[in-house]
Amino acid sequence: xxxxxxxxxxxxxGIPDYVTSLAKGMESMGHRxxxxxxWTEDGMRLPGYEYIAVVAESIAFFSGKIxxxxxxxxxxxxxxxxxxxxxxxxxxxxxxxxxxxxLMKAMEKEGMAINWSEIILNAPHxxxxxxxxxx
Length: 135
Prior knowledge:
Structural class: alpha/beta
Number of helices: 4
Order of helices and strands: EHEEHEHEH
Low-confidence stretches: none
Radius of gyration: 13 Å
Largest sheet: 5 strands, parallel
Distance between the termini: 12 Å
Shape: globular
Number of strands: 5
């Protein structure tokens, strides 16, 4: 299966280690995985994937808000309606549940069908989650 992982860290700082670990776990199950950095890329190639996983962080420790590039990337990729997807957030703030809710709301606004959501604790946990894709 072709999987796109949309990485949305709270700041422009490259791809976090837990995102690459998630991709590594998915690749170990035989999937073809591409990581898309929401800060530097647009979402124009998202419709070409069979499954889309969005991994985001909250913008602040005391906030459940997600970074603005989430909406920008998802709205740029037209024809995402009905696309199977997963929502992941990195645990690191007090309102991680609210962050996950806001991420899922942004994805559902574009018509994506979320069939999996999870809170990522660290890189080894992300790799274990990646191995569960399609299982």
